Amino acid sequence: MASLRRQTHTNIEIVISDDHSTDDTPDVARRLAAQDDRITYLRLPENSGGCSAPRNRALEIARAPYLMFLDSDDELPERAVELLLAAHREREVDFAMGAVERVRVDTGRTSTWMPHLVAERRTVEGIEAEPALLFEHLSTSKMYRREFLDRNDLRFPEGIHYEDQLFSAQAYCLARSFTVIPDPVYRWYIAPYEAAESASISNQRHKLTNVRDRIHVQRLIDDFLKASGHEALKESKDYKFLKHDFRMYAGDLPFRDEEWLTGFADLVNPYLADLSPGAYARLPRAERVVLQLIRDNRLTDARLAARGLGHGVAPRETSMDAEGRVYWGAYVPESEESRTELDLTDQGLDSRPFPSAQFRHEITRVERGAGATVDLVIRTYDPGLRLPVGPQVATLLLAPGRRRMKTPFRLTPVRPGVFEGKAHLDLTQAPLPLNGFEGTRHPVLQLTSGPLRNTSLLLAPLTFPTLRARIDYRGGATPHEVTVEPEGRASGRLQLRWTPVGVTAKVIRPLARRAGAKAGARMRRAARLVASVAR
User: In terms of Cα–Cα distance, which of 254, 255, 498, 494 is closest to 375?
Assistant: First the structure.
């Protein structure tokens, strides 16, 4: 609400649509409405369980000729209304849209949602001219002409989740033209590790009902495309589903149990069978492999293939047919479709340049050693047989500061294409900054071939007991506690967390922050002086 009241374009109407909340919202809303005559408070008689009903009820009473939507946990940048309204005034369009700032509430990091889609200012004459914009399915990044919504009876579907995807698909298809601006017009706060009971809808992927809702909306979009004469967009829409919606679930597969995987496959496979072959063909091979393994109900293999997606992680093993074609997994697939999707021949596992060669490094055992040391058993899979026969020297790389800590160890052949070794990681030797370090690092594994180096992801067991140790003053490093744990998300890497303790936390880091702030102030004063001289 504060972000709305700060808008540089002040002539706005603000409707608070309260979905029968059980907290102090009514008192806060009535107090705000008493302070600001631009505000109208609307309370629904019962909770709808979603976003659609409160938005639709607000639409019924809103009087303004242009409309925007703001979720209760997000903000509008101060110039959002001004910028989008200016885009409408430049030429008559059905809606204008801009960039969305994504803010991680746990780290404060800010990024732009789908930056390549909003990088250039332009007016699009119908979605067929740029079907890739279907990836930007947020309803909140747009300002709509009221007449456009009413003329097409465009409202949010009630009683379902992922309503934004259907609403936005319909808006894109029904709009004669719309303008895209690169300026940020929405600030979206992301809490990816929120507790399950309070997580947003998009972060409840652990629920099979979440999968069911998402697929239901996709089918509604398919029906709309067909009924509205936009079937030519089907492949682009299918590609968006595979690349965005399914891809989010794929990254979670290693952390799901057998019962969940079975339920997931039962829900998603009938829909996957209906998607355009051209949409599959546009995906990277690693994603096509995971999809096909799900479709073949090779669920354990799918979980294995999903680890390291996007990081060039090789399979543990491959198979080869009579024609010399290479496939993911221990045996040649039976069906022609599976052979097409699981074919790795063009990946060049045996021929790509060594720095980009694909290996698979897995920690099979994590044990606590003496003091702040950790003993790791590491297995390396080399399905392309890039490493020469015999022992290999590998190196663990870890950099909690600016300098790397290198831990060499020996990998011994187990069988062709498989090596194993033991690494002794002494965390007291990590070169920490003098002012301490607070953060998380994930070691990587480096192999060499002559002057060439290959640095790859290091996967860890998905579960093992958390290890903690205190590192006292040693070699210039101040006291810290270090935690060794499974990552618990993404690829499931080995995760090490440093936390300053004792004098580091109470004295050294506060002094360093104050010194940094003073240095920053001196730099800003110097910059202003330079600017004034330049003028």
Answer: 494
Gap between the Cα atoms of 380 and 80, Å rounded: 51
Q: Is the pLDDT at 507 greater than 80, yes or no?
A: no
Q: 3-class SS at 7?
A: coil
Q: What is the mean pLDDT of residues 355-360?
A: 97
CA-closest candidate to residue 115, choices 100, 131, 125? 100
Whether the CB-CB separation of 100 and 184 falls below 8 Å is answered with: yes
Query: DSSP readout, 268-292?
Result: HHHHHTTS-HHHHHTS-HHHHHHHH
**Edge-to-edge strand ranges of the sheet holding 494-500:** 439-441, 494-500, 480-486, 467-471
CA–CA distance, 430 with 446 (Å, rounded to integer):
17
β strands within 29-140, DSSP E: 39-43, 66-67, 95-104, 110-113, 122-124
Task: Write down the pTM of the prediction.
Answer: 0.89
- Angle of the 258-272 helix axis to the 299-306 helix axis, nearest 10: 90
Helix, strand, or coil (residue 194): coil
Which segments of 319-428 does DSSP mark as H helices, in order? 336-341
User: What's the confidence (pLDDT) of residue 202?
Assistant: 53
Distance between CA atoms of residues 133 and 240, nearest Å: 9
Cα–Cα distance for residue pair 281/341, rounded to 1 Å = 9
Helix (H) or strand (E) segment spanning residue 260? helix 258-272
Residues 443, 426: contact at Cβ < 8 Å?
Answer: no
Whether the pLDDT of residue 315 is over 90: the answer is yes
Is residue 531 pLDDT above 50, yes or no? no
Instruction: Give residues with Cβ within 8 angstroms of 414, minimum separation 6.
Output: 379, 420
pLDDT digits (tens, 9 = 90+) for 419-433: 999 999 999 999 888
pLDDT number for residue 526: 43
| 411 token code pair | 């990998």
The pLDDT tens digits for 289-305 are 999 999 999 999 999 99
* Nearest-angstrom CA–CA distance, 62 and 74: 20
Residue-wise pLDDT for 118-133, tens only, equals 999 999 999 999 999 9
What is the rounded average pLDDT of the residues 212-218?
95
